[in-house]
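Chain A, query sequence.
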Amino acid sequence: MTDFTTLPAGLPVPEDDGAAAHLPGAALPALTLSASDGSRVDLRGLGEGRTILYLYPLTGRPGVDLPRGWDEIPGARGCSTEACDFRDHFAELREAGASRVFGLSSQDPAYQAEVVERLRLPFVMLSDPGFALGSALGLPTFAADGHERLYRRLTLVVIGGRIEHVFYPVFPPSTHAQEVLDWVRRAGY
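Chain A, predicted structure.
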């Protein structure tokens, strides 16, 4: 079994290019996305409490090659690692006041469902193959071999339908959930 808790040494570190600076305070759009459990999630109707919504480019599968040059793209590598970190900190995030945690990429719901099962994630993954959220909020994306558009890794903390805080860029993804947890604890209820 592959160890999803570690990353290869020497990965390039993404720099803050300002592409998420406009997001704090923005309202989530009226948008409903398909989830890995077959449900649909209304982003504007998330309800009370904080929601952690982490976006990532794509999750690889064992035995399937990642896009050529993947490890050379700053911030691309580490989606499974990040998901496992959110899995491992899920209960603590809830105890600290996060009502919901979602992962989101452009991969389809069936692909996301396989990831949830394989990685034993205690939360659902959202699918946005048309980049509707990215278009509505002006989220940063990039291209990779075989993929015209992928989400850049970032995390939105949402409360009352508005983006309260943004983590961007995210690196390393293998410890990002702890970073989010520390922020939620400092922010309080």
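Residues 32-187 form a domain with the Glutaredoxin fold (CATH 3.40.30.10). The longest helix spans residues 79-96.
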